[in-house]
Design brief:
Blueprint (H helix, E strand, L loop, with lengths): L3 E5 L7 H12 L4 E6 L12 H13 L5 H18 L5 H13 L4 H20 L2 E2 L16 H12 L5 E2 L4 E3 L5 E3 L5 H11 L4 E6 L20 E3 H9 L10 H7 L3 E5 L8 E4 L13 E14 L9 H11 L13 E7 H4 L3 H12 L3 E14 L9 H11 L6 E4 L5 E7 L3 H12 L7
Parallel strand pairs: 1-2, 1-7, 2-4, 3-4, 7-9, 8-10
Antiparallel strand pairs: 5-6, 9-10, 11-12, 11-13, 13-15, 14-15
Length: 443
């Protein structure tokens, strides 16, 4: 028998009914032996996440104000779940201890982590599985970064002692023995860390969507699902704005060679999306895997005759950006021209200084900064060495009347990035999707 580590998000554990769905999913497959829960999420659009309530309690305590009005809502959530599921865990004692510690100034990390901690206790009692406090097996170093080596060794040893275990997400232990949290969305990171430590055969990430989609459903109506995507493809799509998993959650399972399966708690029969290394066994009917992008970039356009023969020219341009604390996204260039793509926010209030400094360092013929650029990435392993991919993409944009302001393709041939005006962004995404995925428009 193999091991599957299953992580469930906040929407999957928002109330007692969702707990019941999770239990059915876990008990339907004997290989699902370790589960990582998030804190209860929203039950409706107007509801408040438990983690947000805990942050509010910490804020109130820091200001010397009464936390009870906010904490009573937390108490009500957990007690309601426990009562509806018929649990017998001593929840009152846990809640009082947490409230006391928050009042005494335990801090934001401790307060926020208690959402996952309490949900883990409830889920362990409901399943009849062992509860493993993440603080005993996940460690951070002095700089607040995950101590991967120590975590792998300690957590791996702990998990071997439990046939079935619940490990709450989002937090671990710092070098002083205090609770330390990951950034928001960090339960995804915990799930991947646990999967690696357990040497799992599969990491399942259960959420409220049936995997990744080939395009943003806010732009393309009912986009096709992605059944299989490589980690490299997902990295490209995530970088350009596609958001399903926390970026850091990919790394632990990726280096361990463990595939990830994104599934929908509310539609457990859907296969979801598999994320893995190789794609030989997962052929796609489409040349591309997905389309992603976002708006509000700027191009710093530098021109100088014989730039290509001037040693260190590019380095000096980037030095000007570094001095102003601006990082670049892409850098397509020609013989006498150099274009540096940056986010508009990063150069806000700095444009005049940047232009002046580039003139000082490089003596160019001209420097201009053009705003209002949107970048769109068309990603797919099927594009590699395929004839006519670029022609198909640019022909689609031409037919849609969209002017391409920038073209950038990496050496891997896995990704073609085009820059268009912000106003053309949505139409460009639809045009590309139509050209590669459907014969008729679906919007």
């Amino acid at each position: 028998m193999g091991i599957k580590v299953s992580k469930f998000g906040g929407s999957s554990l928002a109330d007692a009914a969702q707990f019941q769905k999770v239990k059915e999913i876990l008990f339907a497959d004997g290989d699902r032996r370790i589960v990582v829960p998030s804190a209860p999420g929203k039950r409706s659009k107007t509801d408040v996440k438990v983690t947000d309530l805990l942050y509010e309690c910490n804020r109130l305590a820091g200001a010397g104000q009464d936390i009870e009005p906010a904490f009573s809502k937390i108490r009500e959530r957990y007690q309601g779940i426990a009562a509806q599921l018929g649990l017998h865990v001593d929840l009152d004692a846990q809640l009082e201890e947490i409230a006391k510690n928050i009042k005494l100034g335990a801090g934001a990390d401790y307060a926020a982590s208690r959402g996952e901690y309490l949900n883990g206790i409830l889920l362990a009692d409901y399943l009849g599985w062992d509860f493993v406090d993440a603080k005993t097996g996940i460690f951070f170093d002095e700089e607040g970064r995950l101590d991967s080596e120590k975590t792998q060794e300690r957590l791996g040893a702990i998990l071997k002692q439990h046939a079935y275990a619940v490990v709450p997400g989002f937090y671990g232990c710092d070098t002083h023995g205090n609770v330390k949290t990951f950034s928001r969305g960090g339960s995804d990171i915990t799930g991947a860390i646990v999967a690696r430590a357990a040497n799992a055969d599969l990491y399942e990430n259960w959420t409220d969507v049936s995997g990744c989609l080939m395009a943003d459903p806010r732009i393309v109506r009912n986009p096709e699902p992605i059944r299989y995507v490589t980690y490299r493809e997902l990295r490209e799509l995530s970088y350009m704005g596609a958001s399903v998993l926390h970026e850091d959650a990919i790394f632990p399972v990726r280096i361990a060679g463990i595939p990830t399966n994104i599934r929908n708690t509310n539609q457990p029969d859907e296969p979801g999306t598999i994320i893995g290394y190789e794609a030989e066994d997962y052929e796609s009917e489409h040349m591309i895997t997905g389309i992603a992008g976002h708006k509000d970039f700027a191009i710093i356009a530098v021109e100088k005759a014989m730039m290509n023969a001037e040693l260190g020219f590019g380095r000096r341009v980037l030095q000007a950006l570094e001095e102003e604390g601006v990082s670049f996204e892409h850098m397509p260039s020609g013989i006498d021209t150099m274009s540096v793509v940056v986010s508009e926010d990063s150069v806000e209030g700095k444009k005049e200084r940047l232009i002046a400094r580039i003139h000082e360092l490089c003596s160019p013929d001209s420097v201009e900064i053009h705003s209002g650029l949107a970048l769109i990435a068309t990603v797919g392993r099927g594009m590699v060495r395929s004839k006519g991919t670029s022609a198909k993409l640019f022909n689609a944009l031409m037919k849609a009347g969209i002017n391409v302001r920038l073209i950038d393709q990496g050496s891997s041939e896995l990704n073609i990035i085009v820059g268009v005006d912000n106003l053309d962004f949505e139409n460009a995404v639809r045009a590309i999707y139509r050209a590669f995925v459907v014969k008729e428009p679906r919007w």
